[in-house]
Write a structure and sequence with these properties.
single chain; two-stranded antiparallel ribbon; 13 helices; 4 strands; 67% helix; NADH_UbQ_OxRdtase_su1/FPO
Length: 374
């Protein structure tokens, strides 16, 4: 087969397999998990009637959205009103392209192994920031085009919130890039596979556990970066305790008050897709992505004569998904545990605390790197 055609077919298979089959399935069952975890935390039963243990509930929810009347109020600006849900959903799915969901899989009839990432580009974090920032336009357009005061206030709140925390989030990433010396997400995972995870820099081999003083010195700025980055992801995805753009007690439902049927569902799916991408990015940057802990990948390859066994690539996919699911459950637990911030508290946290802390953290990481280089 022509190599170019083969490359296109493999890329299409990765797009449909990872983006549409896996991520959208995760989105559907994240909603189910959210309802079950919330019910458990509130001592309720939760959805348990549709299928065994309620596992078919996401399908029932999807059918309900499809069959509902697609109503568009007469007073809205229709073109922008219809465009806004797509602008929220599509960027979240595009950013999935640069997140490595596994290492490599060797296929017998192919000369080179298949990399388990859709687009292995050298500016992965910058690509995610650039594309993810487009979703704020969808929320602003939804609020403005609804021609109603509550959606408009929700859109304004959301744009202020997302711009405020994008700065802290970007600054918090710089120490990580200083430590890794890479902008390619696959290379960042490989670095952690060989040197220990950024937040758990311990290796284990036949000689026992090993670590380094430099790794633990850099653990301090890495942990500060992790806290700022994770909290900023909460703010970027409008999740509780940062859900002020759609808080019911003040704004009815915020920017999507006037939406119904599948257009409302797209906002809903966009939020969960952004949460999954955020979880994937946190896992990739701070918890070794698809790699096993303690540098076990290297031990397995050494035991196999320096080559990667065929099953290791598939095991890496399972490891990556397990880590992402843990973080999704963490997002859900926080939502049903922590109360909502006041708006002035939210702004103070972003501009007065995180912004300054992220700036200082860059100098701490750079100082430690210089100290150990000399």
């Amino acid at each position: 087969m022509d190599p170019t055609l083969l490359s296109i077919l493999i890329t299409l298979a990765k797009i449909f397999g990872f983006t549409f089959a896996l991520v959208l399935l995760l989105v559907a069952y994240s909603v189910y998990a959210e309802r079950r975890v919330a019910a458990a935390m509130q001592d309720r039963v939760g959805p348990n009637r549709t299928g065994p243990f309620g596992l078919l509930q996401p399908i029932a929810d999807g059918l309900k959205f499809v069959l509902k009347e697609d109503f568009t109020p007469g007073h809205v600006r229709k073109f922008y009103f219809w465009l806004a849900p797509a602008l929220v959903m599509v960027p979240a799915l595009i950013t999935v392209a640069v997140i490595p969901f596994g290492s490599e899989v060797a296929v017998p009839w192919l000369e080179e192994p298949i990399k388990l990432v859709i687009a292995d580009i050298n500016v992965g974090p910058l690509f995610i920031f650039a594309i993810a920032s487009l979703s704020v336009y969808g929320i602003v357009l939804a609020g403005w085009s609804s021609n109603s005061k509550y959606p408009f206030l929700g859109g304004v709140r959301s744009s202020a919130q997302m711009i405020s925390y994008e700065i802290s989030m970007g600054l918090s990433l710089i120490p990580v890039l200083l430590i890794m010396g890479e902008l390619n997400l696959n290379d960042i995972v490989r670095y952690q596979s060989e040197n220990g995870w950024l937040l758990f820099p311990v290796l284990w081999n036949h000689e026992g556990f090993s670590t380094s003083l430099e790794a633990w010195a850099l653990w301090v700025p890495a942990m500060i970066a992790f806290i700022i980055f994770t909290v900023s992801i909460f703010a970027e995805t409008n999740r509780t305790p940062f859900d002020l753009p759609e808080c019911e007690t003040e704004l009815v439902a915020g920017y999507h008050t006037e939406y119904s049927s599948m257009k409302f569902a797209l906002f809903f799916l966009g939020e969960y897709a952004a949460m999954i991408v955020g979880s994937g990015l946190i896992v990739t940057l701070f918890f070794g992505g698809w790699s096993l802990p303690f540098g076990w990948d290297q031990s397995i390859m050494e035991a196999n004569g320096g080559a990667s066994p065929w099953w290791l690539g598939l095991a890496h996919v399972g490891v990556f998904l397990a880590k992402v699911i843990c973080f999704i459950l963490f997002f859900i637990a926080i939502r049903w545990t922590v109360p909502r911030f006041r708006y002035d508290q939210l702004m103070k946290l972003g501009w007065v605390i995180f912004f300054e802390l992220a700036l200082v953290n860059i100098f701490i990481a750079a100082g430690i790197k210089m100290l150990f280089r000399n």
